[in-house]
Amino acid sequence: MPFQRFGWWTCALLLAASVAHAWEPPATLRETGLYADRDAKAVDRANLHYTPQYPLWSDGAVKSRWIRLPEGRFIEARDPDSWEFPVGTKLWKEFRVGGKRVETRYIESTAEGWQYATYLWNEEETEAPLAPERGTKATAEVAPGVRHAVPSRYDCRACHEGRPAPVLGFTALQLSPDRDRNAPHAERPAPGDVDLRALVDRGLLRGLPEVLLQNPPRVAGRTPTERAALGYLYANCAMCHNARGPLAELRFSLDHSAARRAGDADAILTAVGQASHFVVPGTGPLRSQRVRPGDPDASAVAVRMQSRRAAAQMPPLGTQVVDEDALRLVRRWIEEELDAPRVARAERANGKERTR
């Protein structure tokens, strides 16, 4: 997590500057097409509800998510790890804090590229106008004295466009029917939720390798703890730390291929036993590693998960409160389940990759 080399604000501004500004977001959530009956908050039946198996941590907010494809169109899934969505695709994610709607995030695929907007609910939950482009703070508290943060459009772009497919949470692995019951903050799918099989059966997902229907995607962890830890890192970190986006040159990937069923995950190969550009305070460069087996206090991944200082925290956006459950899980994985022989294999594999 080399914050010294790449500031999220720099990446966000560069990405924002490269995008045309012809698209203007609808002025209110009502105009985006989410609801069939806005006053009754009845979601249009054309908008399909889904529940990822590894939720993104957002300071404990409860979420609902929908996707809508243009009539007669479908998602191309020949590359199971980078789906291609048709122009006109829309997605919404509703956030509730303390049982009340706080914001709804919206992204849309347009001829000019993917566009992002956020709608801020009023106290009465009667209206949700467009939030300020630079983001704002909601009245809802996620911790004593800490208010829910509504992201800027630049923040949205910085998180979503760190990999070829900017749609997060709607992937082959996230929609796999082989769900991880140990995933932190695991959500039970609602009746009628779409998953891989439902999307294929409806003709909304085409080109997906048949093997992924016969053997649904699953994080290849050796133990339930490792599977859950790697799944969490995939959902919360791999949007930036992957082998296909702008940070690929770092050779640090917390991504997970949908087709992988066995062998060490990318996180094992590129994180475990590998030197970290971020030197963990109080350790020194020789002890500090991305993930140091048996030593979570010298592991940058765990230390930065625990921090909420601007220059150190990871993820750098979207959270102001430490995810204590996930932190305990990742620390337990590092301390109890990583062993020296496996690190040696990862180091050998990493060395071979570098010589190619």
Determine the structural class based on helices, strands and strand pairing: alpha+beta
- By DSSP, the count of extended strands is 11
Query: What percent of residues are in strands?
Result: 15-25%
Helix run count: 9
Look at the structure and give the mean pLDDT.
91
Molecular shape: globular
- Identify the quaternary structure here: single chain
Outline the low-pLDDT stretches. 1-6
Task: Give the fraction of residues assigned to helices.
Answer: 10-25%
Helix/strand order, N-terminal first: HEEEEEEEEEEHHEHHHHHH
List descriptors:
single chain; 356 residues; alpha+beta; 9 helices; 24% helix; disordered N terminus
Structural write-up:
- Helices cover 24% and strands 16% of the residues.
- It has 356 residues and is an alpha+beta fold.
- α1 crosses α2 (153-160) and α5 crosses α8.
- The longest helix is centred in the C-terminal third of the chain and has 16 residues, at 340-355.
- It starts with 7 loop residues before the first helix and ends with a helix.
- The relative contact order is 0.14.
SSE layout:
Layout: H1 8-17, E1 35-37, E2 42-43, E3 48-49, E4 62-68, E5 75-76, E6 90-97, E7 100-110, E8 113-120, E9 136-143, E10 146-150, H2 153-160, H3 196-201, E11 205-206, H4 211-214, H5 224-237, H6 266-271, H7 300-306, H8 324-337, H9 340-355
Parallel strand pairs: 5-11
Antiparallel strand pairs: 1-2, 3-4, 4-6, 6-7, 7-8, 9-10
